[in-house]
């Protein structure tokens, strides 16, 4: 459609242009001027399709924009030469005074048409690349967009200046010929009309190319900014389409390499984090009389509760998918402080005395202090902050009667409130040296009785909603200390 519009506009503009700037063409009738120009452009339009298939469509994507420009530009130049030769042979018009003016006018419009059609081809290639998820490899010695803009601006200014010069030369010759038969005012009006005609032709063409440049540039920058924005949010699965054989194509290429490297480093850091958690949890497990299955179950209980609560108005701001994953990964560290408890107390086969229990309770603060050291190195937004909150506060109670800080209500971190329910539930259904394993129903009744005193009421309500999931987790990750009790 853009090609049709350019060809149709050229068929209308060039005859008027020829009459305005060439005194020889001015002697012809409108039909004598228009017919050869329209005929040549019509033939040009018909041959451009097979020529495009041969010289453009067979080329790699990164070559097509330049090929389209030079094909269109070449066709307009050939048509200009044909019209110039036609007038010279048939009417004897001189080359310098007439032929060059037609050559310049037709190729000038051809430059605007070729530029616009090439820019449209660039957009079509970008569409194809984005839809089919393909890419191009920019040349090492590409033709930069900055030089394209400078070239277009230079040619546009040159076209405008040369056309005005041709008009001035023609008008001076006309004034000399007509002499006193034309008043100064009539001459001024005639010259101003010619200048206005040129401006009405060249300015829309120039503005159209500027708009096409801006449109393509905006698309490139939008794709770049969109991917970078998503990367800053932690999404590393996107790539900038490499759709141009210029500096922006190279920029997109380097951006994609950067995103892939960030993705690899992030995976490496996540793996290091998970290994660190596992190592710390395993260390605590070697000194505890509880089994590794307890760690597996409690972290899954925490995740089940968090997933159910993430849309709750009291929790939605704090529980997104990434946070839930960090809570899941950090949960096994809830009793890491037990490594600081003496073996005589930690591994005692019976119930602890009051004094021994006081020492046992220090595991919450010991774990928090150890994790706080790591947190200072990794940052307060790291998984260590959740691990520290869980280790320190999972024995706090909703009514403030817990330990080690007697924290109350919503002052208790959400991570610790979730772990409190998960840890108590698992302790209730598991056999300990001081108690048998309770049934699921009995454990649920005990937790429900603690709603609003021991536990956050909303989290107990969430447990009621996902209790079947808790049962499934307990069954899947059971151990020899866990049994179904009546």
Number of strands: 0
Which spans of ≥5 residues are poorly predicted at pLDDT below 50? 481-486
Helix content, binned percent: over 70%
- Biggest sheet, open or closed, and with what strands and sense? none
- How big a fraction of the residues is strand? under 5%
Instruction: Quote the distance from N terminus to C terminus.
Output: 80 Å
What's the domain count?
A: 2
Mean of residue pLDDT?
86
Number of helices: 16
Order of helices and strands: HHHHHHHHHHHHHHHH
The structure class reads mainly alpha
List its salient traits.
486 residues, mainly alpha, Hypothetical protein af1432, 2 domains, 16 helices, 72% helix, HD/PDEase_dom, kinase, transmembrane helix, transmembrane
Overview of this protein structure:
The protein is an all-alpha fold and 486 residues long. It has two domains: 231 residues, no CATH class; 190 residues, Hypothetical protein af1432. 72% of the residues lie in helices and 0% in strands. The protein has 16 helices and no strands. Helix 1 runs antiparallel to helix 2. It is rod-shaped, with a radius of gyration of 40 Å. This is Histidine kinase. One of its GO terms (biological process) is signal transduction. It holds the Pfam family MASE10.
């Amino acid at each position: 459609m853009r090609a049709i519009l350019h060809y149709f506009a050229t068929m209308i503009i060039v005859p008027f242009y020829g009459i305005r700037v060439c005194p020889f063409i001015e002697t012809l009738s409108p039909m004598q001027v228009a017919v050869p120009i329209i005929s040549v452009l019509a033939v040009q339009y018909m041959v451009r399709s097979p020529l495009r298939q041969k010289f453009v469509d067979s080329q790699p994507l990164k070559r097509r924009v330049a090929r389209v420009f030079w094909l269109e530009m070449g066709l307009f130049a050939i048509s200009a030469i044909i019209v110039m030769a036609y007038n010279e042979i048939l009417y004897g018009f001189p080359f310098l005074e007439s032929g060059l003016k037609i050559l310049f006018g037709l190729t000038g419009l051809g430059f605007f048409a070729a530029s616009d059609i090439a820019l449209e081809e660039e957009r079509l290639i970008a569409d194809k690349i984005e839809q089919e998820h393909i890419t191009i490899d920019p040349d090492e010695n590409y033709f930069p967009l900055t030089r394209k803009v400078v070239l277009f601006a230079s040619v546009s200014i040159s076209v405008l200046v040369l056309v005005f010069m041709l008009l001035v030369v023609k008008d001076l010759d006309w004034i000399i010929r007509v002499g006193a038969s034309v008043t100064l005012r009539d001459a001024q009006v005639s010259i101003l009309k010619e200048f206005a005609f040129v401006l009405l032709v060249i300015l829309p063409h120039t503005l159209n190319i500027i708009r096409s440049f801006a449109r393509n540039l905006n698309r490139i920058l939008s794709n770049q900014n969109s991917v970078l924005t998503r990367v800053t949010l932690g999404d590393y699965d996107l790539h900038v389409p490499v759709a141009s054989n210029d500096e922006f194509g190279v920029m997109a290429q380097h951006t994609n390499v950067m995103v892939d490297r960030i993705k690899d480093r992030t995976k490496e850091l996540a793996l290091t984090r998970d290994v660190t958690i596992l190592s710390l949890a395993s260390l605590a497990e070697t000194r505890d009389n509880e089994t590794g299955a307890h760690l597996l179950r409690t972290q899954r209980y925490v995740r089940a509760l968090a997933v159910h609560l993430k849309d709750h108005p009291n929790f939605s701001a704090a529980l997104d998918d990434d946070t839930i994953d960090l809570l899941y990964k950090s949960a096994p560290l809830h009793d890491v402080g037990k490594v600081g408890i003496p073996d005589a107390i930690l591994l005692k086969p019976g119930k602890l005395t009051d004094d021994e229990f006081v020492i046992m309770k220090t595991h919450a603060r010991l774990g928090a202090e150890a994790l706080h050291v790591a947190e200072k190195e990794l940052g307060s937004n790291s998984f260590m902050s959740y691990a520290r909150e869980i280790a320190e506060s999972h024995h706090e109670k909703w009514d403030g009667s817990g330990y080690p800080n007697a924290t109350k209500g919503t002052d208790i971190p959400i991570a610790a409130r979730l772990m409190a329910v998960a840890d108590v539930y698992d302790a209730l259904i598991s056999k300990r040296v001081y108690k048998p394993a309770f049934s699921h129903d009995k454990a649920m009744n005990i937790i429900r009785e603690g709603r609003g005193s021991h536990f956050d009421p909303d989290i107990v309500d969430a447990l009621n909603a996902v209790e079947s999931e808790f049962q499934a987790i307990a069954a899947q990750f059971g151990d020899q200390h866990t049994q179904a009790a009546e």
